[in-house]
Structures are given as structure tokens and as C-alpha cells.
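ugh ok fine here u go
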Amino acid sequence: MAQPDTSAKLAYVDASRGIAILLVILVHTAYRVPGLDGAFMALVEFGQWGVQLFFVVSAFTLCASQHARYEGRVTVGYFYLRRFFRIAPLYYFGILLYFVVFQALAPRPQDLMLGPYTAGNVAANLAFVHGLVPWAQNNIVPGGWSIGVEMAFYLLFPLLHVLLLGHHRRSQWVLPVAFVAAIGINLGVQFALSGWSDMGSAYSDFMYLNLVNNLPVFVLGFWLYQHAQNGGAMGRSRLIEVLCSWFLFLGFALAALALHASAAPWGFTLTPTLAGLAFVGLVNALRLHHWRLRPLAVIGQVSYSMYLLHFLFAALLVPAVLRALPEATDMTPPALMLALAYPAVIALSYACARVTERLIETPGMALGARMAARWAGAYPQAARSVSAR
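structure:
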């Protein structure tokens, strides 16, 4: 029997990914445009939390996949194989790509914050444990820290899924308690690591970029899934829930920006969570609206490739163009330069992402699906399904 096409119903998921990658590209492009006004730049820096939007959507879609796929015949080994082949082929390509770029840039690899290419750092990235290694988490592949966090979350997901959603009657109170507990655990771990901030930038960055600092964000993805499954807490008044969702997004987005701008001590431990709360409102609003989200969804479908590739254009191409046209740069307002550079980085990243999707991502997912199907003894059609992202 043919399976129903749910792509239209889940367009908001890919659209959310599209928004996430557009936010990330915005902030990384803006960093390369000199002279942007401080207040304008403070607003643009909200784009850094596009990664937290990816995390919310990741937890949400994994919960949906765990419940819907193959009538529950999903073993832990099956899950890990699928996830590994979803991430690894393209990431390994990224390791090779940026090594070549690192050699070409020498002796100025700082343009992409690459290196040192030690055997240990490369091995940590190949094994996807770089999210636990401060000096390896973000210097072999630009932005690779988020892949390390994501893979660590995958490792914990089967256990978290059972604890948070395995007992439906209790999950109404389990998830709020888990969210508060995740914040408490994070504060405790950050206090224990507070001495690391004096040991160099790699250690201070690790305090912000580690899994524990983003664990509350993933828990919010579980809650969003449960909320959607229940039809919404205010299912009888769709308009009220839409308005509340947008207010949730705007309120917590402004709170995250204000806390970030204040440079308050320990603020970095709460800004990802505030951004995650904002994105729960955003995704829920997109879920409830009947907008035509196809342009965002199309971008979202290749957002992983765009994430790994956009650094080439944002960090290298934009500065190169500015250096090549110094007179035009001096006469052009910085905001206009950003308005010109941003679409160009998006277009180039998207074009390249379409190629890597066809040559690397899709074959990798297909291979993972076949291996996982053999592992779990699932239905044969499981090997042909590569739509989970």
C-alpha cells in the first residue's frame, strides 16, 4: 500500500531549517563586512542562534521519526546507523575540503579559524568526539562544534526519548521538570568549568559550545513534539495559539539579544536556552499557519550542506571582493554592502549544496538506510527511504 505523502504537512519543518541556515549565514557574512553600526550588528547577531533552531528541529524530528517509522521496529543500532550515515559522509568531505583550504591559506588560516591540524584533532573529528575536546571542537571544520554537539545528542537520544516520552501519562510533568533540571545541570557544570576561562580561548569557547550548555534546547524540541502530537494546548482556539506563539518568539528573542548585549557574567549559559524558547514559538507558529513555505523549505532541504559550505563564501569571498574594490567599498554604506553580499553568499552556498546533496548526502543516506534495514530486519522499503533528516 502506498504511504501517504506527508511532505506538505511537514513543510514547516524544512522551512524552519531554512530559516536556521539563513540566520547563520547572515551573522557570518556580517562579521566580514567592516563598519556595521553597533546597534545594527547587535540585532544581526541573533543569527548566531540559528544553530539552536537546528537543535530544536532536530529533537522534534527525531521524536517524530522514532514514533512513526517502521511501526516501532527501530532498534538502537538501527537508529545509530541511520544517524551516522546522515552526518558522516558530508562531514568527512568537509574535513578534506577544509584541509585543502587550510594549505592554500597558509600562513593565514586564521581567516577561517582553521587548525592546528594535529593527528589528535583530526582523529577527534573523525570519531565525532570533538565536541568533548576543547582544542578540537571548532578548528578542523568551521562550525564543526555544532556537529559534535549533534552527534553527542544522537548518542543520548534513545535514553532521553524513553525517559521523557516513554511514559505518556507522566510526560505532561516529566518534560517541564527535565527542562528545569537541564538548566540546573548546565549551571552546575559551567560553575565547575569556570576556571577554564583563564586557560585560553579554546577553553572559554568550550564552555559556551558544549552539549550541556545546549541540553535545555534539545529538551524544548521534545516538548514541541509532544505539544504538536496533543494538537496544541489551545487547540480549540487556533488564533490564540498563533498569537501566543509569535509573542513567545518575539519576547524570548528580545530577551536573548538583551542578555547577550549586556555581557552579563554567566549570560552565555542562558542565551541559547532563551533562543530555544523563542524558536519553539517560531516553529509552532509555522506549524499552525497555512502559508506557502516552499522557498524556505527548499533551502532547508539542503541546509546541512549549506552550513558546512557557506564559510568558504562568507569568510573568504566577501573579504576578497572588498579588498579588490577598495574605492567602491569606501563609498558604499556598510549596510548596503551586507545587503549585496548576503544574497550572494546564500546563492553560492545553495548552488554548491545542491551538488553535494546529490553526490554525497543522498548516496550516504541511502547506504545508511540499507545497512540499518539489514541490522533491524525492517521492511524492505526502509532501504529506499532517505527522507529523514
